[in-house]
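We were asked to recover a plausible sequence for a given structure. The inputs and outputs are reproduced exactly as logged, with field labels preserved.

PROBLEM: sequence recovery
POSITIONS: 183
GIVEN STRUCTURE:
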């Protein structure tokens, strides 16, 4: 069983991105255990704080060390990554040489109420993943556009085409994780 951390860039509990992430958990194939690792309580990264590591940083780093892979679910803010998600990347990648991300397979799913599906945010996350040395799912690419229209009033994804697409993303991610575990 591969343990997969889901890092959600939107900090709102009722965010569309979180709803997509909940759908991903629901659709997870056998062999993938997806669970949220929260990033909203992490103090902004400041190297001075490494002398007395904040408890939230320690908790986050410990949780991330215990997972096999990471799924980044991100909205797009001003054509880029939300600050909370970028901060989590920074906190987890430090101190130098002790990144909790190194070598872990990654998948990026970007979500937007607009038609472009968070293209800019998706690629900005990917830029960081190159530096973090994370093998990242290349295909299929996961841009979820017009996302507000995909859910009913209870927050359940009702668009079967998008559900099927997310299932394909998860199957490809499961395959990437399996390949990364081979000697």
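RECOVERED SEQUENCE:
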């Amino acid at each position: 069983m591969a343990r997969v951390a889901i890092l959600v860039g939107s900090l709102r509990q009722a965010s569309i991105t979180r709803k997509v992430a909940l759908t991903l958990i629901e659709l997870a194939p056998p062999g993938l255990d997806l669970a949220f690792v929260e990033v909203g309580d992490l103090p902004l990264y400041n190297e001075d704080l490494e002398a007395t590591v904040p408890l939230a940083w320690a908790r986050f780093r410990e949780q991330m060390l215990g997972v096999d892979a990471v799924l980044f679910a991100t909205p797009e803010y001003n054509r880029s990554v939300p600050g909370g998600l970028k901060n989590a990347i920074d906190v987890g990648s430090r101190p130098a040489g002790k990144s909790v991300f190194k070598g872990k397979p990654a998948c990026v799913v970007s979500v937007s109420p607009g038609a472009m599906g968070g293209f800019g945010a998706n690629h900005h996350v990917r830029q960081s993943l190159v530096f973090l040395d994370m093998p990242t799912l290349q295909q299929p690419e996961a841009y979820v556009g017009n996302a507000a229209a995909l859910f009913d009033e209870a927050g359940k994804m009702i668009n079967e085409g998008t559900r099927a697409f997310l299932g394909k993303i998860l199957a490809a991610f499961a395959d990437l994780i399996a390949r990364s575990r081979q000697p």
